[in-house]
Amino acid sequence: MEVLKPFRLKVVESILQGYNGQLAFHLYFSQLCQQHRQWGSKDRKIYKSICYAYFRLGYAVNNRPLQEGIAMAVEAMNVGFDHVSLNEVFPHHEWLSPQYESLNWLQGLLFQKPVYLSVLPKHLQTVKQYLMQNGHTVVFEQDYCIGLEPNTNCEEIIKRGWAWIMDLSSQQIASMVTIHPGDAVWDACAGAGGKSLYLSAYIQTPFELTCSDKRLTVLENLKQRFKGLQLNPPRVELCDLTQGFQLSNSYDVIVLDVPCSGSGTWGRTPEHIAHFDLTQIERFQTLQQNLFAQAIKHLKPNGRLYYMTCSVFKAENEDNVAYWLKHYDLKAQKQSYAFSQDASADVLFCAELMR
Asked: Cα separation of 302 and 292, whole Å?
């Protein structure tokens, strides 16, 4: 890449100075592009790439003058991040899971991840043919998961109802959920419904699925996703667990994918590496314990609760599990992280607890 020209340096400086981390950077940058229509496509690509390289340096540039940090980002874009100290990128190891070194989480902060598709079995060959015909490079393939180069446009595949976007580790976590014939299953913090889609698409035995969330618009989107993929629609409940909302049903399986720091996904959103307020971890932990206290009321005897986060912080994962084993009559069947050895996927946590 060319040496950063002075006028471009000034623009990058203004972009980074104006960004406070409250909005996802890609949305913030899109707003700026609307305001500065004189930026050409090459300009936009350069500005965005430098900013993301800067974010990937995390705490390593926090205490440096902005121009020096930008110079480090440009150098990393030219020669790679091999010279960057991972301990400088995120020095607060005291917050991390004891397993963090084996998870390759720090290495995964330094590059953009592939786009992963979860493909409906009946459309697998169609998707493969479509990708080949349109010149898309497949970088990973396993069962019904296909990984594509970063920034690959999958809009047409999604529109046709052949697949949905779901990170490799998210698919691995969802595959840990055991469902028996006739089980009543509750996805208690369903969000966009990725894990419920996965269970509905790949679990062959019949089961009853309920999805809940506190946001009506999110649930409407979930229903549209099921419809677009032609999967049997779940029962949908508007449910705010923070308010002690009581469902009348009890469930054999509860999937509790809770709000969290999101640190396991920072390789995709590197703007959070240094902008994240570490004091929020304890707030998330308290929220997670409150959500669990409400959800566990609806677990049948011998039922299984799958506690999930996209975090690498022990307070949100191992410490929470230890707390629940101490205060509830539960057994830990297993707890583990989903990740990829080459750091090309997110890092997620899952614990299976049985009553």
From this structure: 17
Any idea how long the chain is? 355
230 sits in the region (left: phi over 0; alpha: psi -120 to 50; else beta) called left
Say if residues 56 and 270 touch (Cβ distance below 8 Å): yes
Strand partners, 302: none
Termini Cα distance of the chain:
57
Measured from the Cβ of residue 227, the count of other Cβ atoms closer than 10 Å reads: 11
Angle at alpha carbon of residue 47, lines to 46 and 50, rounded to 5°: 80
* Residue indicated by tokens 């419809």: 227
CB atoms near residue 282 (< 10 Å): 12
CB–CB of 305/332 below 8 Å?
no
pLDDT level of residue 8 (50, 70, 90 thresholds): confident
In the structure, how many helices (H) and strands (E) does the chain have?
15, 11
In whole angstroms, give the CA distance from residue 54 to residue 16.
Answer: 9
Instruction: For residues 252 and 192, give the distance between their C-alpha atoms in angstroms, rounded to a whole number.
Output: 22
| Alpha helix segments (H runs only) across the chain | 6-18, 25-35, 41-56, 66-79, 86-89, 100-103, 105-108, 124-133, 155-159, 168-175, 194-202, 216-228, 272-275, 280-295, 318-327
Please give the DSSP secondary-structure letter assigned to residue 334.
Answer: E
Rounded Cα–Cα distance for residues 157 and 238 (Å) = 30
Provide the b/e sequence for 89-119 (b: ≥16 CB within 10 Å): bbeeeebbbebbeebbbbebbbeebbbbbbb
Coil, strand or helix: which one is 115? strand
- For residue range 48-100, list pLDDT tens digits in order: 999 999 999 999 998 899 999 999 999 999 899 988 999 999 999 999 999 99
Residue 191's closest CA among 231, 170, 218, 216?
218
Say if strands 331-338 and 299-309 run parallel, antiparallel, or are unpaired: unpaired
Give per-residue pLDDT as tens, 117-156.
Answer: 999 999 999 999 999 999 999 999 999 999 999 999 999 9
